[in-house]
Write a structure and sequence with these properties.
Number of domains: 4
CATH class of the largest domain: Alpha Beta
Radius of gyration: 24 Å
Pfam family, one: Oxidored_nitro
Helix content: 40-55%
Keywords: ATP-binding, Iron, Iron-sulfur, Metal-binding, Nitrogen fixation, Nucleotide-binding, Oxidoreductase
Strand content: 5-15%
Catalytic activity: N2 + 8 reduced [2Fe-2S]-[ferredoxin] + 16 ATP + 16 H2O = H2 + 8 oxidized [2Fe-2S]-[ferredoxin] + 2 NH4(+) + 16 ADP + 16 phosphate + 6 H(+)
Strand order of the largest sheet: 1-12-11-10-13-14
Number of helices: 25
CATH superfamily of the largest domain: Nitrogenase molybdenum iron protein domain
Cofactor: [8Fe-7S] cluster
Enzyme class: oxidoreductase
Distance between the termini: 57 Å
Structural class: alpha/beta
CATH topology of the largest domain: Rossmann fold
Largest sheet: 6 strands, mixed
Shape: globular
């Protein structure tokens, strides 16, 4: 068997079944670690809970909604502003978080009265917002508060508001993926089909499993708009509450993140006959194939090809410049969910980096199957790792960089391994042709950062070479591309009112001209 046993986890022998090394000639039946199981007691998982998966991943990107957690304040604080789900209504959902702040006395005597009071207060504090989602937590689920009854009571008293209740306490599944399922099914059961939209195109889609991390969605919407496609709703990035109630009128569900949102696509197919088409917005080849698939579905493949030709000609030289300098660098791909398989092969093929390890905190067996199948022989695959296992893996594999979340990323920095935030990005968006170049630039900047290069030196005994911090400068000066081409990814002007990276660009590159 290809199982890998961590030295730090020998006291928990069950953990051996959760890590494998892909060997030569092995198929997936012998190279898959166990996954999507309850965390083994004592292993100190870094997973999120089902409540986190419902509120933090799926619910919060809806922009015109008061997102209120019925439970202790710590639950809502932990799921507030930890991803860059930007929106074009001045980021209302990121600026404010709401909780009923349940205390010990409410656990003893009940918290329904407190919930109703908080709902009314929230609507009065923001009179322009008429929509709300209430998320149940472990504490209020255990005491049996009837959130649905309270929500219905408020809607009868305030007819102009609408409330969605998501019953997804933390213990509702082995990981945050259980929360994804809960809110997907609840939304299609309770809200889809309750609003009739205006159809303005012969080609109408729902863009599903897209959360507008640092403007990812805006990049993809630009491509769809150029193809003449109407995006009826986005589940749920920068999406409106009422827009998402009209998902039943789309001609096609275009699915990006299958791990978080395939459930609602499958239900919409069963109930309304809407077909599902999986796409990939990361990487030149996968994105090109995805746009062609969508175009082929509607018979407008030529429009997709025109976009591909234009964007590839514009951005491929820049990507090649970075690939030449990243070739052979080792990366631990530890993103958590579907990016495991969205990125595994394409960062190797298009950026030249070697994936030496993959892991998932909440992915299912299907995620591992696709991820491992796209990795090279010798890759270490881990399910639900903890901090000590991550440190041991970095010591063994000696990666040049890791792509992961903020918590394990900060641990990596302590052992002088640079990281990129795979969940919320460093300088996104990373989708689209330009975004993929931006991702390569972030990898390049992290690996060749003079700070990281100098951090391994001990100033009390090591000689500090004066040229140590100028590796990047020499590489850039040797480039054959012009200054205008090298900086084009940073200064491209978006059309339209909503420019998600304009402020970031101005702050970071104040001296660059158009």
């Amino acid at each position: 068997m290809p199982y890998h046993e961590f030295e730090c986890s020998k006291c928990i022998p069950e953990r051996k079944m959760h890590a494998v090394i892909k060997g030569p000639g092995e198929d997936l039946t012998s190279a898959l670690p166990l996954g999507y199981l309850n965390t083994i007691p004592g292993s100190i998982s870094e997973r999120g809970c089902a409540y986190c998966g419902a509120k933090h991943v799926i619910g919060t990107p809806m922009k015109d909604v008061i997102h209120i957690s019925h439970g202790p304040v710590g639950c809502t604080y932990d799921t507030w502003q930890t991803k860059r789900y930007i929106s074009d209504n001045d980021n209302f959902q990121l600026k404010y978080t709401y909780a009923t702040d349940v205390k010990e006395k409410h656990i003893v005597f009940g918290a329904e009265k407190l919930l109703k009071q908080n709902i009314i207060e929230a609507f009065r504090a923001f009179p322009d917002i008429k929509r709300m989602t209430i998320y149940q937590t472990c504490a209020t689920a255990l005491i049996g508060d009837d959130i649905d009854a309270i929500a219905q009571e408020v809607m009868e008293e305030m007819p102009d508001v609408d409330i969605f209740v998501c019953n997804s306490p933390g213990f509702a599944g082995p990981s945050q993926s259980g929360g994804h399922h809960k809110i997907n099914i609840a939304w299609v059961n309770r809200k889809v089909g309750t609003v009739e939209p205006e159809i303005t195109s012969d080609y109408v889609i729902n863009y599903v499993g897209e959360y507008n991390i640092q403007g990812d969605q805006e990049v993809m919407l630009d491509y769809f708009n150029r193809m003449g496609i109407q995006v009826l709703s986005t589940f749920t990035g920068n999406g409106t509450y009422d827009g998402l109630r009209s998902m039943h009128k789309a001609h096609l569900n275009v699915l990006e993140c299958a791990r978080s949102a395939e459930y609602i696509c499958n239900e919409l197919r069963v109930r309304y006959g809407i077909p599902r088409l999986d796409i990939d917005g990361f990487g030149f080849e996968p994105l090109s194939a995805s746009l062609l698939k969508v175009g082929r579905f509607f018979g407008i493949e030529d429009r997709a090809q025109a976009i591909i030709d234009e964007e590839t000609a514009r951005w491929k030289p820049e990507l090649d410049w970075y690939k030449e300098r990243l070739n052979g660098k080792k990366v631990c791909l530890w993103p958590g969910g579907s990016k495991l398989w969205h990125w595994a092969h394409v960062i190797h093929d298009e950026m030249g980096v070697d994936v030496v390890s993959v892991y998932t905190k909440f992915g299912h067996q299907g995620d591992m199957e696709k991820g491992i199948a796209r990795c090279e022989v010798g890759t270490l695959a881990i399910d639900d790792p903890n901090e000590l296992e991550g440190l041991e893996a970095m010591e063994k594999l000696k990666p040049d960089i890791i792509f992961t979340g903020k918590r394990p990323g900060e641990v990596a920095k302590k052992v002088r391994v640079p990281y990129l935030n795979a969940h919320a990005y460093h300088n996104g968006p990373w989708k689209g042709f330009e975004g993929w170049v931006r991702f390569a630039r972030d990898i390049y900047n992290a690996i060749y950062s003079p700070i990281h290069q100098l951090s391994g030196l001990d100033i009390s005994k090591d000689e500090i070479p004066t040229e140590h911090g100028f590796v990047t400068q020499r590489m850039i000066s040797d480039a054959t591309l012009s200054h205008e081409v090298r900086t084009s990814a940073m200064v491209r002007e978006y059309t339209g009112k909503y420019d998600p990276i304009a402020d970031l660009r101005k702050k970071t590159y104040p001296d660059l001209k158009k």
